[in-house]
Amino acid sequence: MLKKRARIIGVPMDLGAGHRGVDMGPFAVRIAGLTPQIMALGYEVEDDGNVPVKIQEQMDSGDPKLRFLPQIVEVCRELAEWVEEAADAGDTPIVIGGDHSIAMGSLGGLSASYRKRSCDLGLIWFDAHADFNTPGTTTSGNIHGMPFAVLMGYGAPELTQIGGFSPKFHPDRVALIGIRSVDPEERDLVKRSGIAAYTMREVDERGLPVIMREALARVTAGSSGFAASIDMDCFDPGWSHGVGTPVTGGLSYREAHMAMEMIADTGKLCHVDLVEINPIFDSANQTSEMGVELVLSALGKRIL
Questions:
Q1: What are 20-44's pLDDT values in tens digits?
Q2: How far is the CA of 163 from the CAs of 80, 83, 91, 157, 173, in angstroms?
Q3: Number of structural domains in the chain
Q4: Cα 53 to chain center, whole Å?
Q5: Is residue 303 part of a domain?
Q6: Residue 97 lies in a domain
Q7: Cβ distance 195 to 173 under 8 Å?
């Protein structure tokens, strides 16, 4: 029986974020034992190292509505190539950020691989924020607030056309879970987009298992696989505090693991992003260790 294969790709980029330090995330996650623990699940693991990223001190931020746009496009294009190659080889890419703008590259590359095979792809996105801003709605100009919109075809053409096609996903096969901080104009675009967006109020009222069953039915229906893009600020900062933009009232530790375990139960997970871990705000690398635990649960680690 062939072993499953995972491909780890680090992206030490903070160009899309408002706080420095998230570029250290890939190093902290590796130190937390990502590779040996995935191997313990029975995977063959290859670590491709880090996509090259220039530091902010080497460049000008440029357009205040699209800060560091050319540099982010360059990184995301290269990342897309790395992920596409890994997916073409049948590996499961595990992409470690870095800020959430890297998802434009990672999921762009994954989508390109599936598109070549005429296969449909789903996406489940865990985040405290909708990440659905555009240059016309952003108040900060930070591109890490835009990647979900970009993947759905909204925003600057330089970003939406990474990989040469747009959108990367159909709204009927996309779900967003955990949001509790959304800008007013961003809210309108989320509603118009046709994606399924589950706020923390809905999680509280209906319960996470119900939400996850709905979301997973959506992202797996008619698809050959789905990606999970995990922003660690989705979870409550009481236990996941090593992030740059924490928002009180997120998923609990057990809810987070339940979500990942339910993902594993589908058998259709084909890609993971783990993003927005900022070691500067962490304590003894706890958030990185918890992020690794969540990835393991998504890949099939069980209590019994």
A1: 999 999 999 999 999 999 999 999 9
A2: 7, 11, 19, 11, 20
A3: 1
A4: 18
A5: no
A6: yes
A7: no
